[in-house]
Amino acid sequence: MQQHNVLILDFGSQYTQLIARRVRELNIYCEIHPYNKIPQDLAQFKAVILSGSPSSVRSEEAPHPDLSEIRGKKPLLAVCYGAQYLAHFSGGLVAPSNTREYGRANLSFIKKEESFFSEINEGSQVWMSHSDTIKELPANAILLASTHDVENAAYRIEGETTYAIQFHPEVYHSTDGKTLLKNFLVDIAGIRQNWTPNSFVESTVSELKEKIGDDKVILGLSGGVDSTVAGVLLHKAIGDNLHCIFVNNGLLRKDEFKNVLKQYEGMGLNVKGVDASERFLNALEGISDPETKRKTIGRVFIEVFDDEAAKVENAKWLAQGTIYPDVIESVSVNGGPSATIKSHHNVGGLPDFMKLKVVEPLRMIFKDEVRRVGGSMGIDPELLGRHPFPGPGLAIRILGDITSEKVRILQEVDAIFINGLKEYGLYNKVWQAGAILLPVNSVGVMGDERTYEKVVALRAVESTDGMTADWVNLPYEFLQNISNKIINNVKGVNRVVYDISSKPPATIEWE
User: Fold this and answer.
1) What's the rounded Cα separation, in Å, for the pair 16 and 133?
2) What span, in angstroms and rounded, lies between the C-alpha atoms of 469 and 329?
3) What is residue 183's three-state secondary structure?
4) Rounded to whole angstroms, how far apart are CA atoms 45 and 29?
5) Mean pLDDT on 127-144
6) Of the listed 170, 256, 412, 511, which one is catalytic?
7) What are φ and ψ of residue 303, in 5° steps?
8) Over the stretch 169-197, which tens digit does the pLDDT of each residue have?
9) 173 belongs to the catalytic site
């Protein structure tokens, strides 16, 4: 079993997943669980972190976990809401702040002799995000740090290995946040920094062997990083009992079907190509709602796999390249309180009519971790460097209903854009890029003729794991060249725009 070193209890904060990212950057494994579904087996966890929350501890509806098996028994770090929670229910006083304390602040006082603040100096920038404030600490608390506006910015509880901070160390703007987490987890909690890509491969292959045994597994390959790494992991564990299927859903990039099949030649994987494009496009006819499109594609995807699974004698498992952000965004991680943003076609199990069980070897790791795991197994760096591509494909980049003509237009536009990024040496500087076909026509002039044709938006973002993303400031010369190429070569398009929205508030995809 994977060693679960750190338990993060989720109170619904938008930053909870960032805590996990920061902890893993320290080569320490962690898992997020809802505050109201604390794992029964706490022996596997060596420390606990309480997340922030949009709730107020003074509210009757506030998250109220049972910490009786954690407080005083395990090293505990309480962040923001967690700090207020400990103060409020331990005899301290939490009250509304006179002003909303949000944004950058600087530590004006630090109790330097405390190992918790080792290598962190007064003046260190931290990030605040709360509307309540801790007016009075519990009687057995020792003040560790203050800012100009927040006296009780950090404290610890005497007689326990319990620390609390009002700010967010996981956020980029807390400049010494990673150091503080290291101080707590490594120096105070005594956790070893031994969670590496190699250790993940070793433990995952072992778990897969134990879980699957001699059963046969069917895996849907997409040509992307996630499914490829999942495939190589499974192949290491079960060899020829892995049967890979690459489905053409008619919504792939231009020439993607033949290129992906060629890509897997020589990798030792048993891959079969299935062209189901007509089946998908027929099912999507007349559907405009984004969620309905996703669910329809998911349904047909499962149907196609059911057909193919029947051809593999005694297949027992369906493998998927689900990764942690998919889980977090789809189902509020492990059923926790964080809000659902959108559904993912490969998250949430299978319908009753399928006899296959699901195996998801990458379910608990982030995108950048997937790439590092792939690199440790010797997968081609060019393949690992491929941009993410959404499971529903171009269906969620065609706003409105789907037709074969719209798919053709977008495939042509997308190919010009992506090939242009490669030609200009920009592809590896971008995390994800693509084109979106908008449901509007615009007036244009070509030669002496008036046109009334489609508008496309180009999108390129920088990110680490897809949780947050910034738009890329592509050179004007490049955008001008690509715009001209698209309008001159793609029949049906007369206008090109560039999306300069970041996530949040926008998402990376438009649907």
Assistant:
1) 20
2) 15
3) helix
4) 10
5) 88
6) 170
7) -60, -45
8) 998 789 999 999 999 999 999 999 999 99
9) no
3-state secondary structure of 357: strand
114 included as an active-site residue: no
170 is catalytic: yes
Q: Where are the domains of the chain?
A: 6-188, 197-384, 403-498
Question: Catalytic: which of 4, 31, 33, 80?
Answer: 80
CB 297 within 8 A of CB 395: yes
Alpha carbon distance 173, 170 (integer Å):
9
What band does 329 get if pLDDT is binned at 50, 70 and 90? low
- Whether 343 shows a pLDDT value over 50: the answer reads no
Tokens representing 426 are 């920009």
* 3-state DSSP assignment of residue 122: coil
Query: Which of these CATH numbers, 3.40.50.300, 3.30.300.10, 3.40.30.10, 3.90.1170.20, describes 403-498?
Result: 3.30.300.10
Q: 197-384 has which fold?
A: Rossmann fold (3.40.50)
3-state DSSP of 252-314: CCCCHHHHHHHHCCCCCCCEEEEECHHHHHHHHCCCCCHHHHHHHHHHHHHHHHHHHHCCCCC
Among 328, 334, 332, residue whose Cα is nearest residue 37:
334
Collapse the DSSP code of 321 into the 3-class scheme (helix H, G, I; strand E, B; otherwise coil) and give the result: coil
Dihedral angle sign, alpha carbons of residues 482, 488, 489, 494: positive
d(CA 85, CA 213): 46
Check 4, 168, 344, 345 and give the catalytic one: 168
From residue 82, alpha-carbon distances to 153, 155, 436 in Å are 12, 12, 41
